[in-house]
Design goal:
The chain is an alpha/beta fold. It is about 25% helix and about 25% strand.
Length: about 220
Amino acid sequence: MPTGDGQGERSRHGYGGRHEHGHGAFDPEHLRRHEAERRAWMAPEALLGEMLAGDGAGGVLVDVGAGTGFFALAAARHLPFARVVAVDRQADMVAHVRERARGEGLGNVEAVQGEAEALPLADGSADAALFSMVLHDISRPERALAEAARVLRPGGRLLLVELRPGATDKGPPPEILFEPHRLDALVEGSGYAINRRWHGPGPLYRLKARRSGAEGDAVGKA
């Protein structure tokens, strides 16, 4: 999402429906063809179900760097009474998510073009923000997390899904990935309190954190 670098250059193997490293854009249909392979070890519905357990069935969830909608559409299916906002910097990715949502009859998905450091949402308008396989590609991740905090309500949830360096030979170069302790420090230094961490499945590292401030509506609170 930062123009010319960062979020625009995503996993060369298409993890999470992102772009290739070293390329400004990528064909969404090409990325979509790899989804069955990813689902074999990274089923988005199961991961979100675990990460959002206890958070109810309504609210607003923002998928930052949504790519082909691998997680955004899963969130819309898992939370049919929620509004899912899929944000991506690439116009054809946004069009692709809209088409897929229409094809699946998911009326609770809104796909919009935007930048990770300048999300097209009002202050305090979201209950959860998801970064799946994208934070490591953003040149200033602390600014993206600060922007997520801006759009989250006090007490809103931050959901992160990343690959652990060295845990797989696929995906981005390990030198650009976050060691779990570095990711924890980045999140806590950006004004969030970590609620839970998961190692796995497979090479994944996941965490759930709460935006600082008074307790507010968590995603799923109708």
